[in-house]
Amino acid sequence: MKYSHLYSPLALGDLTMRNRIVMAPMTRSRARQVDDAVSSLQVDYYGQRADAGLIVTEGVHPSADGKGYNRTPGLYNDHHVAAWSAVTEAVHERGGLIACQLMHCGRVGHALNKAEGARFLAPSAIAAAAEIFTESGMMPMPVPDTMTADDIASVVDDYRQAAARALKAGFDAVELHCASGYLPAQFLATGSNQREDDYGGCLDNRLRFVEEALSAIISETGPGRVGLRISPGNPYNDHIDANPLETYAALLALADRLGIAWVHAIRMPSTGIDSLMLTRRHFSGALIGSDSFNAAEAEAFIADQRVDAVSFGRAYIANPDLVTRFASDAPLNALDKRTIYAGEGAPGYTDYPTLALGG
Ligand SMILES: Cc1cc2nc3c(=O)[nH]c(=O)nc-3n(C[C@H](O)[C@H](O)[C@H](O)COP(=O)(O)O)c2cc1C
User: Fold this and answer.
1) Measured from the CB, is residue 229 less than 6 Å from ligand 1?
2) Is 76 annotated as catalytic?
3) Stated pTM of the model
4) Closest residue (by CA) to atom 25 of ligand 1?
5) Any idea where the domains of the chain sit in the sequence?
6) What is the CATH code for 10-357?
């Protein structure tokens, strides 16, 4: 076998991955806008990709307030549990593992994308200086509400309840989205967090929300079924911190203390921070690396112990049988950019051909 490291099993907390190929979390905006539920479309999509060592779902909001983007799925009521159960069943039927990525967008979003009356919650009333897609075109982001102490406790409990629902829906694990300028990252960053209470100011205070959110999730799942997604220094969604190296070193040390199963780090050379090296230095659990890997580079990084597993995003959109293709060095289908987020379902979602079908 050419890629013997990529195709070896990996202990990931309480789980064992059968290979080290992870499907990266990717928002595809095909959930039902009317009730934030997944449908048979997502059952097919994730089921087709179930031979990955681990699938991490698209970002899933733990409450109506946590939604930011159009047609993204939720996990905050029994109906969502039932809908996701069909997805996890399809993945388990093929022997796969699937983690639910919990994504609270905080100040990122637009009212047109959310249920009527849903709030924009953030550490401080500072709008993200960025635009977001809506069905009426690109729009500036709103000024969010400053979260009260009660709001914070309530959102932390939303994460806890979503973790409990994830287990009920058959998910094997939960990944907290703490990257790309969403709510947990908004608390970490000095640009978006200008609070003067226990949740703002010094680094320990800025870490507190993430610590509480992770602890709430762990209280339902145990630490061995929890992952954390990070992208230190990534300015996406106006995510600006005075000292990301220091902030993320402390966050990783916290993740280590909590004993979670994995950190899923996006490497982003443009930030000047080597997030993989930083994670290895401060976190002793498994490290999943992400961003622009191909099979040969993933194999080399695992062989050198720079990462334990690698996630693939765009390649997985276009290649449901990526695990088979890598094994035989088969050419990959090209990504059709026009259908990445197209709201109307199957085209560009569940109809990419497999090798077996001559694709
Ligand atoms: C269409 C699309 C949607 C994405 N949505 C998410 C998301 O919901 N959560 C997340 O953590 N990352 C998200 N990402 C980032 C990917 O998980 C991954 O880090 C990125 O695509 C780089 O990996 P790649 O070069 O293998 O595509 C998204 C990326 C793409 C292309």
Assistant:
1) yes
2) no
3) 0.98
4) 292
5) 10-357
6) 3.20.20.70
